[in-house]
Design goal:
Number of helices of chain A: 18
CATH superfamily of the largest domain in chain A: MetI-like
Low-confidence stretches of chain B: 1-24
Distance between the termini of chain A: 54 Å
Oligomer: heterodimer
Shape of chain B: globular
Helix content of chain A: 55-70%
Distance between the termini of chain B: 20 Å
CATH architecture of the largest domain in chain A: Orthogonal Bundle
Order of helices and strands of chain B: EEEEHEEHEHHHHEHEHEEHH
Largest sheet of chain A: 3 strands, antiparallel
Helix content of chain B: 25-40%
Shape of chain A: elongated
CATH topology of the largest domain in chain A: MetI-like fold
CATH architecture of the domain at 31-138 and 211-290 in chain B: 3-Layer(aba) Sandwich
Radius of gyration of chain A: 31 Å
CATH topology of the domain at 31-138 and 211-290 in chain B: Rossmann fold
Amino acid sequence: MTDQRSQAEIVRQSLKRRYRKERRFRLYGMTAIAIALLSLVVLFTDIIGKGYTGFIKTTMTLEVVLDGEQMYLDDASNKDQMSMADFQAPIITALQKHFPEVEERKDLRELSRLAGSYASNQIKDLLARQPELLGTTQTMEFLVHDTVSVYVKHADNPAYSIRLSEQQQRWVDELVEKGVVDTGFNDVFFSRGDSREPSNAGILGAIVGSLLTMVVTLVIAFPVGVAAAVYLEEFAPQNKFTDFIEVNINNLAAVPSIIFGLLGLAVFIGVFGLPRSVPVLGGLVLALMTLPTIIISSRAAIKSVPPSIREAAEGIGASKMQVVLHHVVPLAMPGMMTGSIIGMAQALGETAPLLLIGMVAFIVEIPDGFFSSATVLPVQIYLWASSAEQGFVELASAGIMILLSFMITMNALAIWLRKRLERRW
Amino acid sequence: MNTMNSTVTSNNETTEAPAVPVQDERPAETIIQEGVTVGSPYADDPKFKLRDVEVFYGESRAIKKISLDIARNEVIAFIGPSGCGKSTFLRCLNRMNDSIDICSVKGELMLDDQNIYDPKRDVVELRARVGMVFQKPNPFPKSIYDNVAYGPRIHGLANRKSDLDDIVEDSLRKAGLWNEVKDRLDATATGMSGGQQQRLCIARAIAVSPEVILMDEPCSALDPIATAKVEELIAEMSESYTIVIVTHSMQQAARVSNRTAYFHLGHLVEVNETDKVFTSPDHELTESYITGRFG
């Protein structure tokens, strides 16, 4: 009797210990998740806090007198004259209207620097399109200079005003008050390629470059990956050689991505002579990098098709090929697609291999084909983040937001596909 | 007990198989002689003629020199304790073991005097003639119609949609499922009840008009009502098909089959008319099994 009681006592004590252990274990888990969530919140706050101004542009609306005499231009349709003309002059004059007291040459130059470097090009383009406007007065909207833009967007932060002289700051304040300088949604960011001038730089070039690259990656990696997985899983004999291949595929998935860049450099550029920094090349390299991921996830998806379905089809007299094509592959497709999308998302965020094959070049034009020079989103972010101008820092953060939204979209698509196409049996 | 058949010697020493818990003083392998079956394993003009069949999984021998005839349009039940090789043997009849790499089959297996395991023989054609229904209902995750139509489609049995419709309707009628599903042929098959799914699998098997239907414990996943329906179906089908059924339920074997074969440790111990097996079996192991002393 006493023995029994003491045994119950022992069990009770050990129970207490066990429950304590369990609680502690749960606590560890919750702490880990809390830390992860906190880091995520900090990351997002930082990026959004720094980057939201990237989606704002600062413009200056001026009444420009297109005075031919001032521009040394009497025929806007004459190309020689156009190339020699001074399109900066009307802008200075227009600005001077707001500040009649400024007359000294040095001050005038400072004043003219408020407008963006491409403002004069805007006038040139207008006249080139419509030469008959010479001599008229036009209301035009110009992007302000990067330093002004940063100053206006961060009016409360003195760290952003150091690039402007006190005189310039006064002018800008006054122009803002008059409503001449205004902020608005940054459509420039979404409609242009890269630029040396932050306020004139856009991400569209990188987005298009990324899309073209991803198309190449998908077109190569998905069919090859699925075919390899189907063959290895369904048709390949089990021997030393296939074991060797299997081990190597698994190893490839863990190879640092920059190695694939070296491979691309050596093989695609060195041996096959493909041009540098084009989406086809980037796509090929990223396809190689994504292949192991796709093969591994596709094989897992094929393995998860219940053997009973295979047997059912074989039992009716379906050939191996029919079993695979009619039953196994369709049932494995959601898993294959999920794996591929996740592989693609990985490829979309990849920078290192692309640096080696020249996709890090400064490219202003929006790529118009698979063989035109391009850059991609993460490389563009890298380029901006390594620039000194304050304007580029916010663009880098804005670019990160764009990239993240692409990633989230792709992962959401993967989840949706899996939920949607998942079959139960 | 085995007076009418003197082929069984009771003290044959073999050392290969481990002893099973038989409540007899002698271990089971001492009272089975390899390659010897009591009762009436042979028939005239059989559908299947199987002689000295051996099946190996790698090194281990799962089926040991079994000889058996399966007559035309009979229902033969394979019974025996778990792991006795009855399913393995069944799967030899339409070469479902082919997909297992380490499995090899020896001996003479003839379907209508053609060798089943002839390397030149097309397994697709064989399986079109010898259909199979599995233990767990395994409809394709497609519509009811597509499940039944799949076989005829891949074999090209119907050229026109209307022919295919006829085959589907006919098969579903034969499987006793038509009235239950005729209004929802496009519904997905996985949404049906277990019994309906199994009858659908039977319909799917008969849609390619096989000569033989192999059933591997077709009712083990079904409730008694669904089981009764499937058994009824087997009785109806026995008029036009040769049916080989593996079952763990002796009552089921007694209800549906003409002949019963008792397997034990990879040996075919006894084959007899079903009535005889369940009333006065020739072999003492069969008797032990049907009286529930092991299994």
